[in-house]
């Protein structure tokens, strides 16, 4: 097993397969998009598959496919199929905005996808357009229906933003009354692709208190090991509610995660500004054993938490880079 200097076992890889996205969410990127990674700087399917294989040989048994929007990448479903066949992999999941996902749901089920995280910041069509700058609400809801129809586990991810969607918190909680979904409210982070400061009024405590005011009977339930969310149950409801302290970073203590950006950079923390480029190492002819040694060395230096990582490496400009370039 991979372990860091604090004795934490690292078994979870988040692989961003593309930086591009077909939404322009206000909390992620400017209206006109970003300077996208050049094609020759992106990893090829073969390079991604090789990196995933090396990680599974090192004990990683969970991989999440992210972006950008992963289904924007050409032949993304073929890549997902190939990754799903790796020996030692027990949990393959996906994070998506749902715009292009519906057509692939039968194949996701076939390839053994364990769960799908669906980004959905509002249940109001007009607010959806204001937040995402795209009129695609109906496509996302059709994807949600399809995922549930095929019996995939669904987690809805909602970034809570003051003045934009706080009125959606309770309606989203109400989804869990009848539907087998987990709705997870996420603190807004500074990774917005610009220099826009964020308001942290709606932090973990504010979100929780707002929900509790409407549902006083809400109960804390056990959090899975290394969970990023604090999880709750409203008695009689089918699904669960979670809150992710993404900015205040109170979940870092038993972190088991690492990230690979679309250009191949290994980042041991979301708030880390640097990292070794595994794609470049592959293109220089490094063997799998050499790659393993690089990975082991990098993970051993994984910072204690997000605050330490930010202090050590993030510049002001990097703090405002987009989640699409980091890997969502």
From TrEMBL:
EC id: 4.1.99.22
Residues in Radical SAM core domain copies: 5-222
The keyword Glycoprotein appears for this protein: no
SUPFAM superfamilies: Radical SAM enzymes (SSF102114)
One Pfam family hit: Radical_SAM
Catalytic activity: GTP + AH2 + S-adenosyl-L-methionine = (8S)-3',8-cyclo-7,8-dihydroguanosine 5'-triphosphate + 5'-deoxyadenosine + L-methionine + A + H(+)
A single GO BP: Mo-molybdopterin cofactor biosynthetic process
Enzyme class: lyase
Domain of life from the UniProt record: Bacteria
Keyword NADP listed: no
Keywords: 4Fe-4S, GTP-binding, Iron, Iron-sulfur, Lyase, Metal-binding, Molybdenum cofactor biosynthesis, Nucleotide-binding, S-adenosyl-L-methionine
GO MF, one annotated term: GTP 3',8'-cyclase activity
Cofactor: [4Fe-4S] cluster
Protein name: GTP 3',8-cyclase
Source organism of the structure: Chryseobacterium daecheongense
């Amino acid at each position: 097993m991979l372990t860091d200097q604090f004795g934490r076992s690292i078994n979870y890889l988040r692989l961003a397969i593309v930086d591009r996205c077909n939404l322009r969410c206000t909390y992620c990127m400017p209206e006109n998009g970003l300077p996208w990674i050049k094609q020759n700087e992106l990893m090829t399917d073969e390079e991604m598959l090789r990196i995933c294989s090396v990680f599974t040989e090192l004990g990683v048994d969970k991989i999440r496919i992210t972006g950008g929007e992963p289904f924007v990448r050409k032949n993304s479903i073929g890549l997902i199929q190939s990754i799903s066949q790796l020996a030692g992999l027990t949990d393959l999941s996906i994070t998506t905005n749902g715009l292009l996902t519906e057509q692939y749901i039968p194949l996701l089920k076939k390839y053994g996808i364990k769960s799908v995280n669906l980004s959905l910041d509002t249940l109001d069509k007009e607010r959806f357009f204001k937040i995402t700058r795209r009129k695609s609400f109906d496509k996302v809801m059709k994807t949600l229906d399809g995922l549930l129809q095929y019996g995939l586990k669904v987690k809805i991810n909602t970034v809570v933003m003051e003045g934009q969607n706080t009125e959606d918190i309770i309606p989203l909680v109400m989804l869990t009354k009848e539907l087998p979904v987990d709705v997870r409210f996420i603190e807004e982070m500074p990774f917005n692709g610009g220099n826009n400061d964020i308001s942290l009024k709606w932090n973990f405590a504010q979100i929780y208190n707002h929900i509790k005011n409407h549902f006083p009977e809400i109960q804390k339930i056990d959090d899975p090991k290394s969970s990023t969310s604090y999880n709750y149950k409203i008695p009689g409801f089918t699904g669960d509610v979670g809150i992710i302290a993404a900015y205040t970073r109170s979940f870092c203590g038993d972190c088991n995660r690492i990230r690979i950006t679309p250009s191949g950079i290994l980042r041991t923390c979301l708030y880390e500004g640097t990292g070794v480029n595994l794609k470049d190492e592959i293109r220089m002819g490094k063997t799998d054993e050499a790659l393993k040694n690089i990975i082991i060395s990098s993970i051993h230096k994984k910072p204690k938490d997000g605050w330490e990582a930010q202090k050590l490496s993030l510049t002001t400009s990097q703090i405002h880079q987009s989640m699409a370039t980091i890997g969502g």
